[in-house]
Design brief:
Length: 380
């Protein structure tokens, strides 16, 4: 999907951050070259790369290059606590850590004990640097297997130790295609990405606009401050943005014009007053719900009337997704009867990395789906 956009819109701006821009053609070339470099340094489908980069155009290049190479990426946000990052690096055991000189990755020490690449100090190889056959075949970028792991995202750890959720290419492609269709972004649209890559919803912000031929505007860490974010929205003429209710709440305290912005809001329960305020100030508001274990969002509801803002619904399942409210015996409950929400379908992740016990407890056989499929027990 991205390659098609790169050919179709080669000279159009694909990504922008802090004044730095790359066209679709440039982004395609940069990511192809870095993808070969990752493969040359031992990364591969079963050998992930940890990405410890701050928010910049280089971050987008790294994430997309890993995806092109079929290498699972593990986000390690330099802004997160050292203890969390150290746990992620121990558990994920990456083949490589991508970083830049002068920007420490808390939890990774000085990187001398880890295989790493400092992207600002490397000459990324071109075709002339690729070895001759048979080694050249190993460095040829191929479409990834849909069932291979695309990324591992670690949960917050609010209920215990953070767990790495292994999300496949089939999982993430289903989500991206569903929201690309829902948002129907056009070439003139500008999607503002504000979420840390350590939170799974960032993948939607980074990839949907690029698959749609729109412009991705990446806010820096400093620009995520509400006042600066409000000015960025207006200066860049943003037309789509996703954020948690907490961020939308503080942003609405600023005199920001959202009349041309399509809003995605999720990650927390949406308060009634905020739903009402967003609906009155934004072009469109969609409330989304889903755990990391079912690939970002599993349901969505566009708030089209005042009734929706009084008790914001989480909506209906996205494409190729099933939801069930079940009792303790896994039987569907009647309308109005309390039960537990289970989610099945194309978004159900492979499971928790190195955690067979919790995987078996939460990822269970789906008696309502095709044979061999699983559903996720949300606890909600």
């Amino acid at each position: 999907m991205f390659a098609w956009q790169a050919r179709r819109r080669s000279d159009a701006i694909a990504v922008e951050c802090a004044g730095e821009q790359l066209t679709y053609g440039q982004l395609d070339e940069e990511t192809d070259r870095l993808a070969r470099l990752l493969l040359a340094h031992g990364a591969g489908p079963e050998h992930p790369v940890a990405i410890g980069l701050r928010r910049s155009v280089r971050l987008v290049v790294a994430l997309l290059a890993a995806t092109k190479a079929g290498v699972p990426y593990v986000p390690v946000d330099p802004g997160h606590p050292a203890e969390r990052n150290a746990l992620i690096l121990r558990d994920a055991a990456p083949a490589l850590v991508l970083a830049v000189s002068g920007t420490p990755v808390p939890g990774a020490g000085d990187l001398r004990g880890l295989p790493h690449l400092l992207l600002d100090e490397l000459r990324v190889p071109g075709p002339a640097d690729v070895p001759s056959a048979p080694d050249a075949d190993l460095l040829r970028v191929r479409p990834p297997n849909p069932q291979d792991i695309a990324y591992t995202l670690y949960t917050s750890g609010s209920t215990g130790t953070p767990k790495g959720v292994a999300v496949t290419y089939a999982n993430i492609l289903n989500l991206l295609r569903s929201f690309a269709k829902r948002l129907a972004l056009r070439p003139e649209d500008r999607f503002l990405a504000v979420t840390t890559v350590g939170f799974d919803i960032a993948a939607l912000e980074l990839f949907v606009p690029l698959l749609s031929g729109s412009r991705l505007v990446l806010a820096t860490e400093a620009e995520r401050e509400p006042g600066r974010l409000a000015r960025l929205i207006e200066r860049q003429r943003i037309t789509a943005m996703q954020a948690t209710p907490s961020l939308w709440q503080v942003l609405l305290e600023e005199p920001v014009d959202l009349s041309g912005v399509r809003v995605l809001v999720g990650g927390e329960a949406l308060p009634t007053r905020l739903a009402r305020d967003l609906r009155h100030r934004a072009r469109e508001v969609t409330n989304v719900y889903g755990p990391t274990e079912t690939t970002i969002w599993s349901t969505a509801a566009t708030l089209e009337c005042e009734e929706h803002t009084e008790r914001p619904p989480i909506g209906v399942p996205i494409d190729r997704t099933r939801t069930y409210v079940l009792d303790r015996e896994l039987r569907p409950v009647e309308d109005g009867v309390e039960g537990e929400l289970y989610i099945g379908g194309a978004g159900v992740a492979r499971g928790y990395v190195n955690r067979p016990g919790p995987t078996a407890q939460r990822f269970v056989a789906d008696p309502f789906g095709p044979p061999g499929t699983r559903m996720y027990r949300t606890g909600d």
